[in-house]
Amino acid sequence: MNRAGGTLRRLAAHEGRWMASLAWWVTRRRDGTAPGERALPYAAAQAALVYGLTFVCAVETAGVHVLLGGVPVARAVLLVVDVYTVLMLLGFQAAAVTRPHVLGAEVLRLREGGRTEVRIPVEHIVSVRYDLRFTKESAKKPAKARGVPADADGEPGGGGVAELAVGGQTSVTVELAGPVEVVRLLGRCERVRTVRFHADDARGAVAAVRARMRERTAPGDEVPEEPGRGAVRPG
Length: 235
What we know:
The protein is of the alpha+beta class. Helices cover 40% and strands 25% of the residues. It contains 5 helices and 9 strands, in the order H-E-H-H-E-E-E-E-H-E-E-E-H-E. A hairpin with a 3-residue loop joins strand 2 and strand 3. Helix 1 packs across helix 3 and helix 2 packs antiparallel against helix 3. The chain starts with a helix and ends with a strand.
């Protein structure tokens, strides 16, 4: 019962976040970005899909409203459901727009809308690189998704991998010196040493993180350069 209650609380909190994000979106504000921190947006990759679904839902709402003109109770119920669906889709996009990744002086905060947030101390980052991947193939590697050590495919770090994909893709890979904890929407925890995320300006995000790493690097130490230009490959 406690587990079910915790899940409900998490879902309710998520509901509140995307609703609040709609207000932030309308007022053109961002959540969690303090002065001196750099926002790394990622919402553009999913915008076309979200707006397309929203348009379809809006057309379906109008059509059902006309077809059920003789059944007022059913029409009212479906109207509420359809309006809620449209708002939820817009809230999904609003959360992504108003809750970007944030690069601070000491912490890189990676976010997945209002669902997930990963805090990575900059001093724990070993390397960061541009690495465009599509996550469609990731489902074929369940061991890595569960955070089980997976070095058979040559992934550096020998630890679990977390993906914060947008539009089915990630474009930046961060390798860590030690594991960080990732808490998913329903409470599932993963300890990972590799985090993949998407940024609209992936190369700019890599350069910004690397610059922050240099600021925190002791004299004489070097930050590894980004290898190549990064090939497009499946997850």
